[in-house]
Amino acid sequence: MNVSTSARVVAILAEARLFATARGRSRTEQMVECSTRLGGMFAWSVEQGRFAREMMKPETASACEGGRFRVPRPPVVPGVKVLRSLASSDAGVASYQATGRSGEPLRVLTSMSSEPRRLAADTRIAGILQGLIPDRYVPAPRADVVRMLDDVALIATLDSDLDQEADGLQLAAKSNTFGSPRVVFHRRDVLVLTEASGTSVEELPAPERAAVYDTAVADWARTLLEDRILIVSLRRDRLLAHDGQLCLSRWSGAHEPSADALALLRNLMAAAFSTAESTRQEAGDHAAQIVADGLGVEGSLDAIKIPILALLSNQDQVLPSRKIVLQIVGRQSSKYSQHSRVEMLQLLRQLVWLRDLAAASGVSDLTRPWRQLALDLGC
Q1: Torsion of CA 329, 330, 334, 338, to 10 degrees
Q2: Alpha-carbon gap, residue 215 to 201, rounded angstroms
Q3: pTM, whole model, 2 decimals?
Q4: Strands 199-200 and 239-242, how do they pair?
Q5: Which of 91, 50, 84, 51 is nearest to 70 (CA)?
Q6: What angle do CA 249, 232, 318 make, to 5 degrees?
Q7: How far apart are CA 289 and CA 293, in angstroms?
Q8: Torsion (CA) 213, 217, 218, 219 in degrees, nearest 10
Q9: What's the CA gap between 15 and 40, in Å, rounded?
Q10: How far apart are alpha carbons 158 and 168 in whole angstroms?
Q11: Domain segments of the chain: what residues?
């Protein structure tokens, strides 16, 4: 069934009316609740806010953390008994505890079948709305803005694509860094996995969480640089600790990285930790150019350089200024390709998620594992 633009507008207006008349809680909490009910880009934005606390106001981050996503009825899978639904931080994927025929513990994932259509409808509506804005308030050519919206919506769609999840788990088997579940059954909208062993990182005592951050950064970077696998799904809610090893429960989007992804990480570490000032300056400029080329935007690199270099720093907050937002949604360059832009946005988001893991773990020095990596790799 298609989600028409007109039907989506009606749903959005209905939630807007509820928001306008609601009483008793903060406006931010009410907005998050409306967004989770609407699904699509609204719910996906809440999911992103939950794991990017330092990039938004504290009250907004707390409201996103408390947002609850709807859970559909569990799917019917031969030989699998669903026991209960599990609390999920994913807007487009529901999770269930289950057992197999022999009583073995399993995890069932199901994608929300209507979410891709909602995402597409939301993107169409955003494109129509920006077409109504006077030209002087639009930061870039309208076609470029629409293409950026389409690319962000593609990332949201990929996040809940269980085919992508199955492909990522195949790559996981080729790496010895993170443990991973095994695929038991797969069809387009359902994935049955072995239950990953370990204790959720969010439930560990504070000293153990701090050690997990160091290990997670080192393992993620080595998986990228040595195993040539770019993981873009590593979040604190998906990490488990078991017998000295970390297990990652979700692998959606993992892929063989481009040369630019490898070069960006090396240049970020060199820009942050090289002992030579000239090397730090050159590496910082190169990193900014890699990001601009990956995003397919043109213009001054100054707006990009400062926030990306902060990703590997002890800076309290990495808040994107209005200038960087306009730069990212700025004029499209001749080097634009959708694949490169999507990979670059996923990579930058992954670095933000690693910072979120550090904050949740009470880590005082975010640079420690990065500094050691830079030393080991000669950056």
Answers
A1: 0
A2: 12
A3: 0.92
A4: antiparallel
A5: 91
A6: 115
A7: 6
A8: 100
A9: 13
A10: 12
A11: 5-65, 259-377
pLDDT by residue for the chain (379 residues), tens only, comes to 456 889 999 999 999 998 888 777 788 999 999 999 999 999 999 999 999 888 888 899 899 998 889 888 999 999 999 999 998 899 999 999 999 999 999 999 999 878 889 999 999 998 888 888 887 777 677 788 888 889 999 999 999 999 999 999 999 999 989 999 999 999 989 999 999 888 998 889 888 888 999 999 999 999 999 999 999 999 999 999 988 889 999 999 999 999 999 999 999 999 999 999 999 999 999 999 999 999 998 877 777 888 889 899 887 655 555 455 555 556 677 788 999 999 999 999 999 999 999 999 889 899 999 999 999 988 7
Q: How far apart are CA 241 and CA 179, in angstroms?
A: 9
284-295 as b/e: b if 16+ CB within 10 A = bebbbbbbbbbb
Show the tokens assigned to 98. 């289950």
305 residue type, one letter: K
- Round to whole Å and give the CA distance between 304 and 321: 10
Return the closest-CA partner of residue 351 out of 325, 313, 322: 313
